[in-house]
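[Automated response] Your request has been received and processed.

Submitted sequence:
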Amino acid sequence: MKLVWLGKSGFVLQSGGTTIAIRDTTLDRSHLAEADLVVSLCATADLPLFDKSLRTATRHHRPLDDAGAKEAAVMRVDKATLVIDASGEQRTILQATDRADGDWGRWADRAVIVMAGAGHSIIRSGLKALDRARPSVIAVAVADGEVEEVLVQLSSARGETGLQILDPGLALEA
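Generated structure:
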């Protein structure tokens, strides 16, 4: 999985051989033209609903799994949370924390969680996620002036979960 934050809640994600543009005002036409799929983080009614009750933690990748590799599946959890599942990749969860419900569970275990929004809403949602699931990484897209507070608050509760602050234009690979 490769993720590039473009600012605000705009992202380009490569997962399972599929390039997904998460649309925002920060995306220009070149990002949209290169994408196999274009979705909006907060207008997800056209995407299938992710059934949290039937989903368990993602399994570790095995070479045998590549035989049936498929494109990434993009589903919505709530009005501002997307789940991207692709064969051979860790589950990726993108959330606009200012508008999301923040209902975390075992379905987020070992996932890469990407949170975008104001610092206080990222802290609130991040602490909930760390309390109810065991993600492998939480990546945070937050304004420069709020980075320190987010780091202090989430670092104390993260346990073995990695914590990454995203920089616009730079890629995160997990």
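Summary generated for your ticket: The CA atoms of residues 100 and 118 lie 12 Å apart. The longest helix spans residues 119-132.
If you did not submit this request, please reply to this message.
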